[in-house]
Design goal:
The protein is an alpha/beta fold. 27% of the residues lie in helices and 24% in strands. It is built from 11 helices and 16 strands. The strands form 3 sheets. Strands 3, 5, 6, 7, 8, 15 and 16 form a 7-stranded mixed β-sheet that branches. Strands 11-10-9-12-13-14 form a 6-stranded parallel β-sheet, sandwiched between helices. A 3-stranded antiparallel β-sheet has the order 2-1-4, with no helix packed on it.
Length: 352
């Protein structure tokens, strides 16, 4: 079968190759891939700026149908539509795993990073990580279940968004747009989203279409002033940082009210960034960092997707076969696509 493989360490070194078709072992399920979405971490691995263990088939955001069951697997049958959590390799014995936080176990080696992933015709995953796709949710939309679960974990489980709260989101990338929708589905509002000139053609319009009350181009408008105007001069109850921009990190304490909250998902890729510590201290702020997603995040995320309260379709900019992986990577890296799907065996739908 074909697979998009990171073949070695260094920048680039990603190739479409013939790889061995996997077979499920005990407790595992073989899944025929229907659609696999490109994540920012896939782009970072492409650029040699993220942990990975080559050679490895990339891709961890996917949907598919069960094609074979390993020994001892019950509860699934061939043809079931499924998605999967990414916490492969978690030890199952440490405090984190035993307290329901296997997503952050030090031994975790996620699919597409530490073991072969979904940019291929088939992938094998532990049955205990699978979730059924809700009826009525397309396989293409279901491929965004993993980033939706990340947004749920950050906004609902870590930052604790509440109905009626005002929220500002820095960064209208895929995660930022999903955080926006999760917060809106939780009853939050008003919602303000800040972006850069690069976000004007595509991302900020999608933010408006998916629930933002105001979008701000920070190169032309003062985001703090817009947030204050939207909140009666008090500041937002909650700021969610998804961009990884050092400038956005430095701005966060100025965006929220006294005793407000900050939720952080964005990775800066730097050893240190500036943060106005004293402003945060004197305001008595709470800061929650969020990484990956828990089992509960997936349950809630799939319910939101299945009910339409979170919509994946507006984020999907292109669908192409595996053979056009580089085109899809480049489009997403350059901001010409929000989410690109690789669809094995498809002719594909490129950028409109």
């Amino acid at each position: 079968m074909l697979g998009v493989v990171k073949v070695g360490r260094g920048k680039g070194l990603v190739e479409l190759r013939e790889v061995e078709e996997p077979a499920p072992g005990p407790g595992e399920v073989k899944i025929r891939i229907s659609a696999a979405a490109i994540c920012g971490s896939d782009l970072h691995i492409w650029r040699d700026a993220h942990p990975y263990w080559p050679p490895v088939v990339l891709g961890h955001e996917f949907s598919g149908t069960v094609s074979a069951l390993g020994e001892g697997v019950t509860g699934y049958v061939v043809g079931d539509r499924v998605v999967s959590e990414t916490s492969t390799g978690s030890c199952g014995d440490c405090f984190l795993c035993r307290s329901g936080n296997r997503h952050i176990c030090p031994d975790k080696r996620a699919a597409g990073i530490g073991r072969d992933g979904a940019f291929a015709d088939y992938v094998v995953m532990p049955a205990g990580l699978l979730h059924r796709i809700p009826d009525g949710l397309s396989l293409e939309e279901a491929a965004l279940s993993e980033p939706t679960a990340i947004a749920v974990h950050a906004v609902m489980e870590r930052a604790g968004v509440r109905a009626g709260e005002s929220v500002v989101i820095t960064g209208p990338g895929p995660i930022g747009l999903l955080c926006l929708q999760v917060a809106r589905a939780s009853g939050a509002g008003p919602m303000v989203v800040g972006g850069t000139p690069a976000d004007l053609p595509l991302r900020l319009p999608v933010a408006t279409a998916t629930g933002a009350d105001a979008v701000v181009n920070v190169a032309e408008e003062d985001l703090v002033e817009r947030v204050m105007a939207a909140t009666g001069g008090v500041g937002a109850d909650l700021a969610i940082e998804t961009s990884g921009s050092p400038a956005a990190v430095e701005l966060l304490p100025h965006l929220v009210r006294r005793l407000g909250r900050i939720g952080v998902l964005g990775v800066t890729g730097r050893p240190a960034v500036q943060f106005p510590w004293d402003v945060a201290v004197f305001k008595g702020l709470e800061v929650q960092f969020s990484f990956s997603s828990r089992h509960t995040s997936w349950i809630t995320g799939l319910r939101l997707l299945g009910s339409g309260r979170v919509r994946a379709r507006p984020l999907i900019s292109m669908e192409v076969p595996l053979q056009r992986w580089q085109e899809a990577f480049e489009a997403q890296a350059e901001g010409r696509a929000i989410k690109s799907l690789l669809v094995p065996g498809a002719s594909g739908k490129g950028l409109s």
